[in-house]
Amino acid sequence: MPAPAPSLHEKLNQLRQRFIAQLPLRLQQTADQWQASRASCEAESRLAPDLHRFFHSLKGTGRSLGFERLALLAEKAEDALTDAHPRADLDDFMTALLCQLNDELSYLQTDQGQQASLAALNSVEFTHQPEQVRSKRQRLIYLCDDELEHVSSLVHHLRCFGHEVVHFADTETFFNAVLTRRPDAVIMDVQFPHGQTAGTETLTSLNRLTGQELPSIVLSGHGDFHSRLSAVRAGCNGYFTKPVKPLDLMLAIDELTAPVDDEPLRVLIVDDEREVAEYHALLLEEAGMIVHQIHHPNDALNALERFSPDLLLVDVYMPVCSGTELANIIRQQPEYVGLPIIYLSSETDSQKQMSAMAAGVEAFITKPVVPDELVSAVRLRAERLRLLRSLMTRDSMTGLYNHSTTTDLINKTLAQAHRSGGRHAMAMIDIDHFKTVNDTHGHLAGDQVIITLSRLLRTRLRLSDTIGRYGGEEFVVLLRDVSIAQATSLIDGLRQDFALVDFHAGGVSFRCTFSAGISDFPNHPTTQSLRLAADQALYRAKHQGRNRVTSSMESAHDGE
């Protein structure tokens, strides 16, 4: 049986031990540098930045890892090197201080010293993060309603979107089912034979018992104040009165259970102090982020290109190139003008902080960091960039990728497939007689059809598939690692379900269909040839009467 993964505290303790193990050599090198700096004014001027940087870093690292006495001694040395002192006084002071640092290091290497410093390590705590919605797009939905005539249509529409739906006719069976298997969302009636608010009271009891609120929507034949109040007190997220349009309720459930961004935030740390970089990486990884560390500014631009971070965490004081200089270099690259940059430093002088931020960085965090404050600062700024990127890359109506972004993603996927030998399939999808829908039922109804198809694609297809709106009523999908036969069968299943969705406009109910053309890679090796073949197959489907799926393989066989 494999050993359990080490906890955060165990990882931090290992990091502290490594830091203490390499510190004797660094202290000896610093003592040698100090002695060499006293040889002449030229040597003093040349070595002063390295000495200042060592003590500044030791101060920050010591505090971050809980070695407060080391940090205090380093801070005294840093202040002494910064302030003007008579040469003789400074010699005596630094000689004594280096001895104190060695004494403290010797103490920390003992069992007693290690135990005494663990209190600071054990003080590292994280705010509890609520359990996130499952990343898969299919949802488990419990529908609790004893009026069976209202149930069948709702169940049908929810299953069209690929959701697993379980119906309960009484609250007791529903209650026990939730305790056995927790759903992603609940649709609950308010009134049952044994109580006018029995449904919402059941939700309230479950929330108290489990300590977590069930994502829930009320569906009731009553819209009175008392019923609505009971729903609010039960923590319900929506309230619909019967008769309800299935599509409206279905879209509300879709919004309620929409998965959080499945792609973790990506953070690049640039810090020449390996232990500090690893410490901050551990804190961010514990919060669910992906972190890459580099320890020399020279590597920053290559790392930015390879890792594509959502945020950069940079130490201010580094050899060769300061954090401020690195930020200016990065800001000169057009593609990184908007990349959030946060400085990390043990510098507390507000004027120096303001000067360092002149390169256009977003924040200045002083070491030692408070773990939750670091996580919050990083998450806030990285998610803001994600939002801005999303506004530029996604269609505003559907949330799907726009035309140019879809093309870029397909290009990248095919380039990778050429190297790895993968196979993919493309589907071009077009809503049938869409102009007639707009002319007959109005543009709002047409928008409803487009949004519904986009949501159907998002809920039924995989997270790894690329789904884009090519324009108007046309969509494109790149299905990864599937054959053309598998893709044709999958899209045809979506076509059949979409044709059974009821739309409403002005008191009139209507249905829509779509046609699709499928092509495959590597038979069509480029994005252009893949799209052209799918377009030709789509045209063939339209020509044959619409509401059908045709593949480029069928077209090729017909031409034989």
Describe, in plain words, how this protein is organized in 3D.
The chain has helices at 8-37, 41-64, 68-82, 87-108, 111-122, 151-160, 171-180, 198-210, 225-233, 246-256, 274-286, 300-307, 323-331, 350-356, 371-393, 403-420, 434-441, 443-460, 484-498, 527-543, 552-558; strands spanning 140-144, 164-168, 185-188, 216-220, 238-241, 266-270, 290-294, 311-315, 341-345, 363-366, 424-431, 466-471, 474-480, 503-505, 508-510, 514-521, 549-551. It has a 5-stranded parallel β-sheet with strand order 2-1-3-4-5, sandwiched between helices. Strands 7-6-8-9-10 form a 5-stranded parallel β-sheet, sandwiched between helices. Strands 12-13-11-16-17 form a 5-stranded mixed β-sheet, sandwiched between helices. Helix 3 (68-82) packs antiparallel against helix 4 (87-108). Residues 123-135 have low confidence and may be disordered. A hairpin with a 2-residue loop joins strand 12 and strand 13. It is an alpha/beta fold. The chain folds into 4 domains: 8-122; 140-257, Rossmann fold; 266-393, 3-Layer(aba) Sandwich (Rossmann fold); 403-559, Alpha-Beta Plaits (2-Layer Sandwich), CATH 3.30.70. Helices cover 53% and strands 15% of the residues.
